[in-house]
Amino acid sequence: MLSIVILISGRGSNMEAILKARLPLDIRAVIANRPDAGGLQTAAAAGCATEVVDHTLFSSRDAFDNALAARIDHHRPDLIVLAGFMRILGRAFIERYPNKILNIHPSLLPAFPGLHTHRQALEAGVRIHGATVHIVTPELDAGPILAQVAVPVAADDDEDSLGARVLRQEHVIYPAVLRRLAENVTSIGETGVVLRGARRVEQLDASGEKLISL
Ligand code: GRF
Fold it and tell me: Domains of the chain: which residue ranges?
């Protein structure tokens, strides 16, 4: 069974959607970088092991990344699932787990990377917004895209109303991607993902040209 560790920073509603989907996944731990992350209680109530690696206790980004990696490695997960994890991870951390870190971003990447995506979308005047599940590479919000969901922008939307509409779809798309992986991946090695019934999927590269076919 595919094993994962979920990383959160706050309320953890995407994590909760993943837990509620009852996926055939071995969820080894939920780790937060903030002790007050609300999602920790949700995870514990659902019977998940929880841990905190408090970023404020480390003097540098690298020191935090190393401590986080040590906790993740203890669990030996196949995949690391970022679900509202709001710390930027350093290149060394990301390169330690090639093609093994997934993230959900609340926009249709490559549009609107970074923060305040709903504000960016409203300011740009787009009529269609959405969310993206992608593989994490060292370039922020630029890794290979696994799945996207489109969400219409209403004429009277503000950041909150648009964000809420996108979030509802995030809660659908992230579990869906993980289900596809959980049901189809037979192994994950240094060079990529092996899907059931398929010959070895080629190594995912940063260009996104060679991609897991979901
Ligand atoms: C979500 O919109 C996610 O896409 C973004 O941060 C938000 C986290 O929400 N990265 P939650 O903690 O999953 O409720």
Answer: 1-97, 104-214
Fold of 104-214: Rossmann fold (3.40.50)
Burial annotation 167-186 (CB, 10 A radius, 16+ → b, else e): bebbbebbbbbbbbbbebbe
From 31, 88, 103, 104, the mutation candidate for ligand 1 (largest count of ligand atoms within 8 A of CB) is 104
14 CA from centroid of ligand 1 (Å): 6
User: Ligand 1 mean position to 209 CA, how many Å?
Assistant: 27
Proportion of the chain in helix, strand, coil states, percent, rounded to 5: 35, 25, 45
Mutate-to-test residue for ligand 1 from 6, 7, 9, 14, highest number of ligand atoms within 8 A of CB = 14
Q: Tens digit of pLDDT for each residue in 171-213?
A: 999 999 999 888 877 666 655 555 554 433 333 434 444 444 4
Kindly give the distance from the C-alpha atom of residue 131 to the centroid of ligand 1, in angstroms, as a whole number. Answer: 10
CATH class of 1-97: alpha beta
Question: 64 falls in which pLDDT band (50, 70, 90)?
Answer: very high
Residue-wise pLDDT for 26-37, tens only, equals: 999 999 999 999
Place of tokens 């055939």: 24
Closest residue to atom 7 of ligand 1, CA basis: 84
pTM of the model as a whole:
0.89
Same fold, 1-97 and 104-214: yes
